[in-house]
Specification:
325 residues, alpha/beta, eight-stranded mixed sheet, 10 helices, 39% helix, globular, SDR family NAD(P)-dependent oxidoreductase, SDR_fam, NAD(P)-bd_dom_sf
C-alpha cells in the first residue's frame, strides 16, 4: 500500500478547521505519497471538509490509496485523474467533479509537485579530459534537450495548469453566482531564487500574479472570487527527502525542513482566516529555530509579502527624449 504517512498528525485544533469545514475541496497534484498535495487532502478530509477531490495525473497508485483511506474515515473523497495541461482532459473532468461533489468546488488548492532535477542555467557542461569534440557536442546537445524538457513541463503545469484550473472553476462559480476561493501554492524560490531549478523559480514567480490578474478580469464579479498565494520554504517530501539532512540546500531559509504535517497545519491556520485578511495576499512561511525547546524545535509564522514597484525616468531619456508628431 502506497500510503506511508501517519494520518493522526493531520488532525488539527478545531479553530484551524474553519477554512475547510463543510466545504467542497479540490486539490491538484495531490496523488503522490508523502507529498504536499497529499498533506492538504488529508488536512481537509480529516478536519471536516464535505468533499475532497484528489487530483493526480500519473501517481494513480498513491492517489487511489489516499482516496481509500479518506473514505474509510467517512470522507466523501474521490479520485480525479487528469492532465491539467491538456484543456480537453481538464474540461472533461468538469461534469464528473460536479456530480461527485453535488455542486461546484468552493475551495480550489492549486498545487504541483514538479521541479527540475537540477542544472546550471546559462552554463554549458564541463569538459571531460580526453573527450572528443564530436562526443562533447553530442553530450551537451542531449543535456540541453533533457534539461529544457524538464523545465517546459514545470512551466506548463504550474502556469498553464493553474490558469486553466482557475478559468474553469471561476467561470463555473460566477455563472452559478456562488463564492469560490483559490489558493496557489508557490515557493520562496519565487522571491529568493536558488541555483539549478530555473523553471521552478520562474513558474512560482508567475503564480504570484494570478490573484491580481483574476481580480482585474472578473470586474464586478470579483466579489464572488477570492484568491491568494502561499510561499513555502523547503518541505520534506519525496522530491526533497534526499536533501533533508543537508543544510547547504535549505540552511539559508530554515534550521531544518518542515514535515508535511507541519506545513499543512500552518496552511490550515491561514485558511481559517477570513477572506478579507487573505484575499489578494502573498503569504510567506517562515521557519525559525527554537533552541530552548530542543534541537529540532522550530517556530512557524506567516509573513505577508508586498511588492513595492518604483518607476524612475532614466537620465539619458530625460536629456534626450524622443518626440513624434
Amino acid at each position: 500500500m502506497a500510503f506511508t504517512v501517519n494520518p493522526d498528525k493531520f488532525r488539527y485544533p478545531a479553530e484551524f478547521a474553519a477554512g475547510v469545514k463543510g466545504k467542497r475541496v479540490l486539490i491538484s497534484g495531490a496523488g503522490k505519497d508523502g507529498g504536499l498535495g497529499q498533506s492538504f487532502a488529508l488536512a481537509a478530509g480529516l478536519n471536516g471538509a464535505e468533499s475532497v477531490a484528489v487530483h493526480f495525473h500519473s501517481s494513480y497508485d498513491d492517489g487511489l490509496d489516499l482516496v481509500d483511506y479518506l473514505r474509510s474515515q467517512g470522507v466523501n473523497a474521490f479520485p480525479l485523474q487528469a492532465d491539467v495541461t491538456n484543456m480537453g482532459d481538464l474540461w472533461a473532468s468538469r461534469s464528473y467533479v460536479i456530480e461527485k461533489m453535488g455542486g461546484i468546488p468552493n475551495l480550489v488548492i492549486c498545487n504541483s509537485g514538479l521541479t527540475e532535477k537540477g542544472y546550471s542555467f546559462g552554463r554549458s557542461l564541463r569538459e571531460i579530459e580526453g573527450e572528443s569534440m564530436a562526443m562533447r557536442r553530442a553530450r551537451v546537445r542531449q543535456a540541453f534537450i533533457n534539461n529544457l524538457n524538464e523545465t517546459r513541463l514545470v512551466l506548463d503545469t504550474k502556469i498553464d495548469g493553474f490558469m486553466a484550473m482557475t478559468h474553469l472553476w471561476s467561470g463555473e462559480a460566477v455563472y452559478a453566482n456562488e463564492p469560490i476561493q483559490f489558493v496557489y501554492i508557490s515557493s520562496r524560490q519565487a522571491i529568493d531564487p536558488g541555483v539549478s531549478v530555473p523553471g521552478y523559480a520562474i513558474a512560482n514567480w508567475a503564480v504570484l500574479q494570478l490573484p491580481k490578474v483574476l481580480q482585474v478580469n472578473l470586474g464586478r464579479s470579483a466579489e464572488l472570487v477570492s484568491a491568494y498565494s502561499v510561499l513555502y520554504p523547503f518541505v520534506r517530501t519525496g522530491m526533497t527527502n534526499e536533501y533533508a539532512e543537508n543544510p547547504k540546500v535549505f540552511g539559508r531559509w530554515q534550521p531544518r525542513m518542515l514535515e508535511t504535517f507541519e506545513a499543512a497545519e500552518g496552511f490550515m491556520q491561514l485558511l481559517a482566516q477570513p477572506k478579507e485578511v487573505t484575499n489578494q495576499g502573498m503569504f510567506e512561511a517562515i521557519v525559525e529555530p527554537l533552541p530552548e525547546r530542543g534541537e529540532r524545535a522550530v517556530k512557524f509564522t506567516w509573513k505577508q509579502v508586498k511588492f513595492a514597484i518604483e518607476e524612475e525616468l532614466t537620465p539619458f531619456s530625460a536629456q534626450h527624449p524622443l518626440e513624434f508628431a
